[in-house]
Amino acid sequence: MSNACSGEPGEVPDEEVNAHLGNPGLETSRRVTMRAWMCLLEMGLLMAGCTDNPSTQPGGRDGGIDGDRGARPVAYGNRQVDVSHRVYRGEYLVRSFLDPRDSSIVYLDHDLDGSFLYRVPRNAKGSWDVDRKNREFTFGKRSFWDPRFNTKDKSFYVTSDDFNDETFNTYRVDLLSGKLEQKTAFQYSPSYHFNADESAILSVGRMNKFGNDECLTETLLRSGQKVTIFCNDGHLKLYPFVCPQEDPNSGTIAAVLNLKGDRSQLNIGLFKRDGGRPKVITDDSQKRARLNLLGWYKEKLYFVANNGKEPAKLYAYSLPDDKIEVVAEDAALETLKGKLDERSGLIFVVGRSKDDSIGKAIAVNLKTGEKRTIDTNDVELLLDGWGDFLSDGTLVVPGKDRKDGSRLLLFSVSSLSKPEEAVKIVFERKVLQAPPPAYEAKVVTYPTFDNDPATGTTRQIQAVLFTPKQKPAKKAGIVFAHGGPSGQTTVAGANEIDFLCSLGYTVLGPNPRGSSGQGQEFEDLNNGDWGGGDYKDYEYGRRYLVASEGIEPARVGIMGGSFGGYMTNWAMVQPKNEFGFGISDYGMADLLLQMRFSVVPDNTRSDLGDPETNEALYKERSPMTHAANINKPFLVTTGSRDNRCYYEDTRRFAAELKKHSDQVEYLELKGEGHGYRYPDTLVQYYQAVASFLFKVAPTE
After folding, report:
1. I need a surface site. Which of 24, 328, 415, 654 has the fewest CB within 10 A?
2. Based on the structure, what is the number of domains in the chain?
3. SS3 label, residue 324
């Protein structure tokens, strides 16, 4: 059945891409249709004709996807491998919130037809009963972030896009009718918060989706009027990924700045509504790649940050005293994420150690000064901007059980006043029960190509070795390249790693230079050097895997997504590529094209510099430039709506590769954005990976 909503609004016209590539006459193949614009006007009401499955009606199968969760096998040689627990994973945790009107839990779930919000009422005993869940409304195949309740107009607001394409704005959500009303009018605005009296939306956004023109604005909820407070200038650049926060007493607005466009130079600026330049309150001489604003309490701004080589800490900035003090810290924790309740004066932060082996939560009562540290090793609390406080100061926060590595999802309550119930399961929601991990994991190190100045000896690269529990008939290995570039592979693994091990592959997950978890200095080592030292670290990881596991060199490949996809693209087009095969998911190939059409050019600009000044570097470090070198089997995948690692870049890269090799396969997943999440397309993806691997390096 044809899709009446094809056309995918928000995509860049081919004429503009072709102009960049010097092909202005190339026929346009993707245009926005009138019907697509009509679907946009419906603002996400998935009536018939406005979904990828026009026969779907809102309120279809009652109770969500439980009835559809049958086995979803993919073929690997003579075996059938069930991937149902990978594709029916839902998003109950990071897309959940409390309705303060009745303390019911509202969470997002996916099925084959789209995304649906569910409500779980709180019962008379004060707990939540999973069996009483009620479908709220069809939300559609779109992204969904930052749910917040506005007490002034008694409505929920979210950051969302139109068609999973990251054209982010703030929307008002009517939970009764299911209508979404767009409240801001940006091309890209990934975060927001309300002003102090909740009469307006504070946000950092840009009018040019692919530009660098961020402005801090205030959009009045009643009239829709937008007031500009500050826009980027030559030195100060607004960082759009952290929500602005207003002090209710002084009207001072705090927002995060990305000084000189360097993502490791995050600082806090204080803004007034007079249009003047902000006051920078953090030390702008320190490296600071992670900074998150929690909010104001009694003229103090609370935030978590890591400064230079120090671990992350909870800080408070006093507006009257113009001073910053440390509120809480734990030397074992590398990163912290937190939540502040302005009503009760409670702060809750969670963090994990560098190697992910230690998990702790720190609760602070700002009224009394009381602090408590809670061991959370067995429960991973997912406080990525989610979680809500009840009226008694108890925090309801999503989490998952870490003991058995399953996909069992749950909600945890954490309380300062009830230490005996510090982490308590109050609501349990199971995705299909996952089997135990298909691997044994251990942290290893291996030598790379250069010396560590701190020790004067050969630099050691940290990695995680994942060995399959079921020994394969034939050994084969894969070097897994993580995203970022400042991501990190831990013993917790990833869905893709577990899938590879279930097929019998030994996986090495290196944390090369540029990775987080080993200090800011190490994280900065690949600045201006994408595809240089970091690629060599992966290549030395390949050598380690061959030597330590006794695997034939031709049977060791490389795989990664996002920046890991870029590293895979780069590895596969090196003149002396030693990897036997590659799998690249939604990676970058033409860095100059990405700078023009990616919605997140910040990391690239930060690491490689200004593309006009450093055009030669951008071209030289683009895999597209070296596509003619391809000579090994290569599977390239992307989502048709990925505007982060721009989908058209991947299309063109695959087409160019195919000119030089008949060993290149290309898979484009319709409707997917950056990262794959819908059941049908995930099955399609896993099948493509399994078929490709069985062809190039079978383990049976």
Report:
1. 24
2. 2
3. strand
* CA–CA separation, 112 and 48 (whole Å): 15
* Residue 36 · residue 9 · CB < 8 Å: yes
Q: Is 682 helix (H, G, I), strand (E, B) or coil?
A: helix
Q: Report the chain's C-alpha Rg in angstroms.
A: 25
413 and 494 share a domain?
no
Q: pLDDT class for 46, splitting at 50, 70, 90?
A: very low
Tallying the residues shown for the chain, one arrives at 700
For 307-361, the pLDDT digits (tens) are 766 778 999 999 999 999 999 888 777 777 888 988 888 888 887 776 666 677 8
* Contact (Cβ atoms closer than 8 angstroms) between residue 182 and residue 191: no
Q: Mark whether 388 and 451 lie in a shared domain.
A: no
CA distance 217 to 197: 16
Question: Per DSSP, which regions of 319-385 are E strands?
Answer: 323-329, 335-341, 346-352, 359-365, 371-375, 379-381
Helix (H) or strand (E) holding 680: helix 679-696
291: which 2 tokens?
């900074």
- What is the C-alpha separation between 589 and 436, in angstroms, rounded? 36
SS (H, E, C) 147-164: EEEECCCCEEEEEECCCC
Tokens of 235: 């030195």
- At which residue do the structure tokens 């013993």 appear? 491
End-to-end CA distance of the chain: 39
Instruction: Count how many Cα atoms sit within 13 Å of the Cα of residue 249 in the half-sphere of its side chain.
Output: 11
Q: CA-to-CA distance for 96 and 410, rounded, in angstroms?
A: 11
How many alpha carbons lie under 13 Å from residue 523 in its C-beta half-sphere?
A: 27
Full DSSP string of 461-495: EEEEEEEESS--SS--EEEEEPSTTT----TT--H
What are the structure tokens assigned to 480, written together? 């897994």
Q: At what angle do helices 563-572 and 533-549 cross, to 10 degrees?
A: 80
Kindly give the pairing relationship between strand 477-481 and strand 556-561.
Answer: parallel
- pLDDT tens digit string along 516-561? 888 778 888 998 899 999 999 999 999 999 999 999 999 999 999 9
Among candidates 231, 187, 265, which has minimal Cα distance to 599?
Answer: 187
Do residue 576 and residue 519 come from a single domain? yes
Q: What is the DSSP letter of 628?
A: G
Domain check: are 417 and 454 in the same one? no
3-state secondary structure 623-648: HHHHHHHCCCCEEEEEECCCCCCCHH
Token output for 262: 């360097």
* CA–CA separation, 631 and 567 (whole Å): 17
